Amino acid sequence: MSVGGLVTTTARPTSLWGLLADTPIWVPLVAAGIAVVGTIVGTLAGVAITQRHADQREDVAWRREQARWAREDRARTFDHRRAAYSDFYESLREMARRAYDHGMGLTEDAELGQWQLPTFRKLEHLRLYASDAFVAVADEAYNAAWGWGHKTTFGHDDDSFYERQEEYDEAERLLIAQMRADLSVPAQ
Protein backbone atom coordinates (compact mmCIF):
# COMPACT_ATOMS: atom_id res chain seq x y z
CA MET A 1 0.00 0.00 0.00
CA SER A 2 1.34 3.37 -0.74
CA VAL A 3 0.49 6.51 1.04
CA GLY A 4 1.97 9.64 -0.35
CA GLY A 5 4.72 7.80 -2.06
CA LEU A 6 5.60 5.74 0.95
CA VAL A 7 5.09 2.10 0.77
CA THR A 8 3.56 0.68 3.88
CA THR A 9 2.80 -2.89 4.62
CA THR A 10 0.11 -4.17 6.78
CA ALA A 11 1.86 -6.03 9.52
CA ARG A 12 0.40 -8.94 11.15
CA PRO A 13 -0.09 -8.59 14.85
CA THR A 14 2.74 -10.20 16.72
CA SER A 15 1.09 -10.30 20.13
CA LEU A 16 -1.18 -12.99 21.51
CA TRP A 17 -4.03 -10.55 21.71
CA GLY A 18 -3.60 -9.82 18.11
CA LEU A 19 -3.84 -13.48 17.21
CA LEU A 20 -6.85 -14.03 19.42
CA ALA A 21 -8.59 -11.04 17.99
CA ASP A 22 -8.62 -12.74 14.60
CA THR A 23 -9.92 -16.11 16.02
CA PRO A 24 -13.67 -16.58 16.06
CA ILE A 25 -15.12 -16.96 19.59
CA TRP A 26 -16.55 -20.40 18.99
CA VAL A 27 -13.16 -22.05 18.52
CA PRO A 28 -11.95 -21.66 22.14
CA LEU A 29 -15.40 -22.59 23.37
CA VAL A 30 -15.35 -25.81 21.35
CA ALA A 31 -11.84 -26.59 22.60
CA ALA A 32 -12.94 -26.00 26.21
CA GLY A 33 -16.04 -28.13 25.66
CA ILE A 34 -13.96 -30.97 24.25
CA ALA A 35 -11.67 -30.75 27.26
CA VAL A 36 -14.60 -30.84 29.70
CA VAL A 37 -16.26 -33.75 27.87
CA GLY A 38 -12.94 -35.61 27.74
CA THR A 39 -12.40 -35.06 31.44
CA ILE A 40 -15.90 -36.28 32.28
CA VAL A 41 -15.63 -39.34 30.02
CA GLY A 42 -12.18 -40.16 31.40
CA THR A 43 -13.39 -39.79 34.96
CA LEU A 44 -16.45 -41.97 34.35
CA ALA A 45 -14.37 -44.63 32.59
CA GLY A 46 -11.88 -44.63 35.48
CA VAL A 47 -14.67 -44.96 38.03
CA ALA A 48 -16.31 -47.79 36.05
CA ILE A 49 -13.04 -49.70 35.71
CA THR A 50 -12.19 -49.18 39.38
CA GLN A 51 -15.69 -50.28 40.43
CA ARG A 52 -15.50 -53.38 38.24
CA HIS A 53 -12.21 -54.41 39.79
CA ALA A 54 -13.53 -53.69 43.29
CA ASP A 55 -16.62 -55.82 42.56
CA GLN A 56 -14.45 -58.67 41.33
CA ARG A 57 -12.27 -58.47 44.47
CA GLU A 58 -15.40 -58.37 46.63
CA ASP A 59 -16.87 -61.41 44.83
CA VAL A 60 -13.67 -63.37 45.39
CA ALA A 61 -13.59 -62.32 49.06
CA TRP A 62 -17.28 -63.27 49.45
CA ARG A 63 -16.70 -66.70 47.90
CA ARG A 64 -13.74 -67.26 50.21
CA GLU A 65 -15.83 -66.22 53.21
CA GLN A 66 -18.65 -68.57 52.21
CA ALA A 67 -16.16 -71.41 51.73
CA ARG A 68 -14.68 -70.67 55.16
CA TRP A 69 -18.15 -70.73 56.73
CA ALA A 70 -18.92 -74.03 55.00
CA ARG A 71 -15.65 -75.52 56.28
CA GLU A 72 -16.41 -74.30 59.80
CA ASP A 73 -19.94 -75.76 59.60
CA ARG A 74 -18.56 -79.10 58.41
CA ALA A 75 -15.94 -79.08 61.18
CA ARG A 76 -18.56 -78.21 63.81
CA THR A 77 -20.91 -80.92 62.52
CA PHE A 78 -18.04 -83.41 62.52
CA ASP A 79 -17.25 -82.50 66.14
CA HIS A 80 -20.91 -82.99 67.10
CA ARG A 81 -20.99 -86.28 65.22
CA ARG A 82 -17.81 -87.51 66.88
CA ALA A 83 -19.14 -86.55 70.32
CA ALA A 84 -22.50 -88.24 69.65
CA TYR A 85 -20.76 -91.42 68.44
CA SER A 86 -18.45 -91.45 71.43
CA ASP A 87 -21.22 -90.77 73.96
CA PHE A 88 -23.41 -93.48 72.48
CA TYR A 89 -20.60 -96.02 72.36
CA GLU A 90 -19.60 -95.36 75.99
CA SER A 91 -23.22 -95.66 77.09
CA LEU A 92 -23.68 -98.85 75.05
CA ARG A 93 -20.57 -100.37 76.65
CA GLU A 94 -21.96 -99.50 80.10
CA MET A 95 -25.29 -101.08 79.14
CA ALA A 96 -23.52 -104.27 78.00
CA ARG A 97 -21.44 -104.35 81.18
CA ARG A 98 -24.62 -104.11 83.25
CA ALA A 99 -26.15 -106.98 81.25
CA TYR A 100 -23.04 -109.08 81.85
CA ASP A 101 -22.88 -108.24 85.56
CA HIS A 102 -26.59 -109.03 85.92
CA GLY A 103 -26.22 -112.45 84.30
CA MET A 104 -23.16 -113.24 86.39
CA GLY A 105 -24.93 -112.17 89.60
CA LEU A 106 -22.48 -109.31 90.24
CA THR A 107 -25.10 -106.60 90.78
CA GLU A 108 -26.77 -105.76 94.08
CA ASP A 109 -30.30 -105.84 92.64
CA ALA A 110 -31.90 -108.83 91.02
CA GLU A 111 -33.80 -106.41 88.73
CA LEU A 112 -32.19 -104.21 86.11
CA GLY A 113 -34.88 -101.50 86.29
CA GLN A 114 -34.48 -98.68 83.74
CA TRP A 115 -30.94 -99.73 82.83
CA GLN A 116 -31.35 -99.16 79.08
CA LEU A 117 -32.79 -95.61 79.14
CA PRO A 118 -29.51 -93.62 79.17
CA THR A 119 -28.30 -95.53 76.11
CA PHE A 120 -31.66 -95.15 74.38
CA ARG A 121 -31.50 -91.37 74.91
CA LYS A 122 -28.00 -91.31 73.42
CA LEU A 123 -29.28 -93.34 70.47
CA GLU A 124 -32.04 -90.78 69.86
CA HIS A 125 -29.49 -87.93 70.02
CA LEU A 126 -27.22 -89.86 67.69
CA ARG A 127 -29.90 -89.87 64.99
CA LEU A 128 -29.33 -86.11 64.50
CA TYR A 129 -25.71 -86.45 63.40
CA ALA A 130 -25.09 -90.05 62.35
CA SER A 131 -25.16 -91.47 58.86
CA ASP A 132 -27.98 -93.85 57.97
CA ALA A 133 -25.53 -96.74 57.90
CA PHE A 134 -24.31 -95.93 61.39
CA VAL A 135 -27.84 -95.54 62.75
CA ALA A 136 -28.67 -99.01 61.39
CA VAL A 137 -25.68 -100.70 63.09
CA ALA A 138 -26.25 -98.63 66.26
CA ASP A 139 -29.84 -99.88 66.39
CA GLU A 140 -28.61 -103.45 65.96
CA ALA A 141 -26.00 -103.04 68.70
CA TYR A 142 -28.53 -101.43 71.05
CA ASN A 143 -31.08 -104.18 70.37
CA ALA A 144 -28.42 -106.87 70.93
CA ALA A 145 -27.39 -105.32 74.27
CA TRP A 146 -31.00 -104.82 75.29
CA GLY A 147 -31.92 -108.39 74.33
CA TRP A 148 -28.91 -109.73 76.20
CA GLY A 149 -29.84 -107.93 79.41
CA HIS A 150 -33.61 -108.32 79.09
CA LYS A 151 -33.48 -112.08 78.51
CA THR A 152 -30.85 -112.71 81.18
CA THR A 153 -31.83 -114.12 84.54
CA PHE A 154 -29.97 -112.73 87.53
CA GLY A 155 -26.98 -114.92 88.36
CA HIS A 156 -27.73 -117.43 85.62
CA ASP A 157 -25.00 -117.59 82.97
CA ASP A 158 -26.19 -120.48 80.83
CA ASP A 159 -25.48 -121.14 77.14
CA SER A 160 -28.14 -118.70 75.93
CA PHE A 161 -26.44 -115.99 78.04
CA TYR A 162 -23.18 -116.51 76.13
CA GLU A 163 -24.98 -116.74 72.78
CA ARG A 164 -26.57 -113.34 73.37
CA GLN A 165 -23.18 -112.02 74.47
CA GLU A 166 -21.71 -113.23 71.16
CA GLU A 167 -24.56 -111.52 69.28
CA TYR A 168 -23.78 -108.31 71.12
CA ASP A 169 -20.03 -108.69 70.49
CA GLU A 170 -20.62 -109.07 66.75
CA ALA A 171 -22.97 -106.07 66.68
CA GLU A 172 -20.38 -104.05 68.61
CA ARG A 173 -17.67 -105.06 66.14
CA LEU A 174 -19.83 -103.85 63.22
CA LEU A 175 -20.61 -100.65 65.13
CA ILE A 176 -16.93 -99.90 65.67
CA ALA A 177 -16.12 -100.59 62.01
CA GLN A 178 -18.88 -98.24 60.83
CA MET A 179 -17.87 -95.61 63.38
CA ARG A 180 -14.29 -95.70 62.10
CA ALA A 181 -15.50 -95.41 58.51
CA ASP A 182 -17.81 -92.45 59.27
CA LEU A 183 -15.14 -90.62 61.28
CA SER A 184 -12.36 -91.42 58.77
CA VAL A 185 -10.33 -93.24 61.40
CA PRO A 186 -7.91 -95.67 59.76
CA ALA A 187 -8.63 -99.33 60.42
CA GLN A 188 -6.22 -101.08 62.71
Q: Quick one: overall form?
A: rod-shaped
Return the average pLDDT rounded to an integer. 88
Secondary-structure element order, N to C? EEHHHHH
Strand arrangement in the largest pleated sheet: 1-2
Q: Beta-sheet strand percentage?
A: under 5%
Return residue spans where pLDDT drops below 50 for at least 5 consecutive residues.
none
Distance between the termini: 119 Å
Count of discrete alpha- or pi-helical segments spanning 4 or more residues: 5
Output the structural class.
mainly alpha
- Mind telling me the C-alpha Rg? 45 Å
Instruction: Summarize the biggest pleated sheet.
Output: 2 strands, antiparallel
Number of individual domains: 1
| CATH class division | Mainly Alpha
**Fraction of residues in H or I helices:** over 70%
CATH topology: Four Helix Bundle (Hemerythrin (Met), subunit A)
**Total beta strand runs:** 2
